[in-house]
Structures are given as C-alpha cells and as structure tokens.
Amino acid sequence: MRSPRVHDVVVVGAGPAGIGVAAALGRAGVRAVLVDRYEVGASFRRWPEGMRLITPSFTSNQFHQVDLNAITPETSPALSLTEEHPTGQQYADYLGLVVELEDLHVRTGVDVLDVEPYDDGTLGVLSADGRDLYARHVVWAAGEAQYPRTNGFRGAERCVPTVQVPAWVDHPGEAAVVIGGYESGIDAAVHLVEAGQRVTVVDPGEPWNVVDADPSRTLSPYTRGRLRRAYATGRLELVGDARVVEVAPEACGFAVATDAGESFHSDGPPLLATGFVGSLAVVRDRFAFDEHGRVEVTESADESTVVDNLFLAGPALAHRGAIFCFIYKFRQRFGVVAREITDRLGYDAAPLEDLRDHGFLLDDLSCCADCAC
Fold first, then answer.
1. Mind listing the pLDDT tens digit for each residue in 278-319?
2. Does the pLDDT of residue 3 top 70, yes or no?
C-alpha cells in the first residue's frame, strides 16, 4: 500500500555529492531526506588503510578559493582535519561534520533497489526491506566506489578489487600484480612496495605516460611523486601495451597472462583497479546512455532524460566531453540541481545565487568542449 507521506526531495547517497546537494537545497529552505544503505561517508570509511585523497586540501575559503575537497562554501577539510591529503576515515568524519552543521536528515540502512515513476508524477524510492519512500523529486548520488568492475577477462573472479583491501601490509606474499594503472592501481602499487613487495602493474593505456590538462585523464601530481619514489626502489615494474586476458591459479599463487604472451606471478590474489560500474547500474533503466556508455542528462539541470524529476549528482556526471568526477568538479553542479528543484517546488531560489561566486553553481557550460573545468 502506498505511503501517504510524499517528501519534497529524497537524496540517495550520503557521500559528498548527496550531502552537498542536500546542503545546497537547505540554503533555499528545502529540506531533503538523505538515505544510504550504510552510514555517512561509507565508501570513504572502507578505503584501504593509508589511502588518501589525491586532491590537496588548503584553507583559502575566505579568499573565494574554496578548499578543493569541501562540499559547502563555508567548510574546509584542511581546517577541520588539519590534513592536506585526508585519509578516507578522516574525510568521512568531515562529511559527518557537515551533516551536523547543516542539520541534515539522514536515514541509514536503506538499501535502494530502484526509483519507480508513478502516473501522478511522484517517484518511489524502493528499498530492499520494504521501507519505501515517495518523493516529488529524487537526486541519485549513490557514487561509484562501492561498485567496482570485477569482470573483463577470464578468472577475474579470482582477483580482489583494490578498494576492498583493508590494509596493504596484510596482502599475502612477496610478489603482487595490480591490474590497472590509474589512481587506485598506482596507489595500491606504492603501498605494496612500501610494504616490501615486488609489484607489477599492467595497463594497456599506460596512464603513467599520459599528460593531459584535464586531471580526470592523467595521474595527479601527488600520485606521480609517490610513483617516482616507488619506482626508484627497483621493486616496481610498469607493463604497458598489454592487456590481461586471464588469471589462473598456479603453485603458490596465481598466473596473470596478457595478450602479449607474457605471464606474471602473484603470490596473493591479483588486485583489480579497472574502474567502477558505478551505482547507476542499480537504476540503469531510469537513465539513458550514449554510445560511449556515459549517462545522458539534461544540460540545464542534470535531470534524467528518461524519468522526470530524477536528477544526478556526483562523479558519473559528464558534459560536452568534460568529466566531473572529482569533488571540486561535480560540486559545481550542486547549485544547478538545487535551483531547479527549488523553482519547481515554488520556493525562492535567490539564496542559491551566492553559490555562484564560490564555484557551486556552474550553469554556463559553453567552455566545456574546449577546456578542463
């Protein structure tokens, strides 16, 4: 039976995107209900021990240069955490602080299975335990990291995604293979080298050799510096121009075979750093996707082109070839989504305009085909 309660806004995901959009809505007096299947900042709390944000935090908000990792203009992880590159646990603590400061309504333990549109224009947020919610607007902000890609070659099920490793010092053996050489792959390799292991990283795209103005397409300076130091130990091998085709068990470990005819030994399970299918896989039928697999949303409001009143926030966003996967990128659209919802609800959206000066309301995407936002 349908619940009589229809919320103005339900935000799915209590990470930086969900909390940031909810906080933006609150500036205009719109109170959203945030739901998450775990706790606030769950993805960050599950990061491997020692993993840190690659974007630096710095206290400069008063000069209209908001901390790159902040999700509201008034807060700064650098100030509250006193760390330039916070750990996942630290950043989750910052997110919890924002929830308190903004007095946000968060319901945890809600595992959302779908967002269903009804004829009257409302949306049902359907959960695994039947605690369904109903709303006039839904913002999908469930993130990426809890949904690692775990297929792509034979034997991929024998590997462990890097984001599921509790502590690098506990990874077994003296020789490890990392499949994927972008940020999480290199981070894993660096930590394993520091733990004394010999590490082979395999990636046909050779991200360590890519130089691009868009930081979403190249390794960060923070990662490159750590990579150089790890490589200098002589215990790190970078293998490019080769794709892993199979992982098979062998005596005392695993054999990682490539299409170049090479095979590399890993004492423990090889580590997967091949990206994420993302939370959109949960509601794939509620969004459209282009020929490259990128989600299609309206440019004016990041709204689904399939289901009205269903919006997207977070790292899956892309416009005109620009990738919004970093916090300082996707937060630029918080004000855009909040303004659209505020207008539809009949609230005064004027209080949101001050977000523009702080980089939280980017509604002119004319440059996105030519520059890195």
1. 788 899 999 999 888 889 999 999 999 999 999 999 988 888
2. no
Residues 181-229 have pLDDT tens digits of 999 999 999 999 999 999 999 999 999 999 888 777 889 999 999 999 9
Amino acid at 79: L
Please give the pLDDT value at position 1. Answer: 44
pLDDT at residue 369, rounded to an integer: 55
Kind and range of the H or E run holding 230: helix 221-231
**Closest C-alpha to 178, from 236, 252, 250:** 236
User: Which class would CATH give 156-272?
Assistant: alpha beta
What CATH homologous superfamily does 7-146+276-358 map to?
A: FAD/NAD(P)-binding domain (3.50.50.60)
The Cα-based distances of 55 to 52, 168, 324, 346, 363 in angstroms read: 9, 21, 14, 37, 24
The domain locations on the chain are: 7-146+276-358, 156-272
Q: If you ran DSSP here, which 8-state letter would residue 347 be given?
A: -
Q: How far apart are CA 242 and CA 259, in angstroms?
A: 6
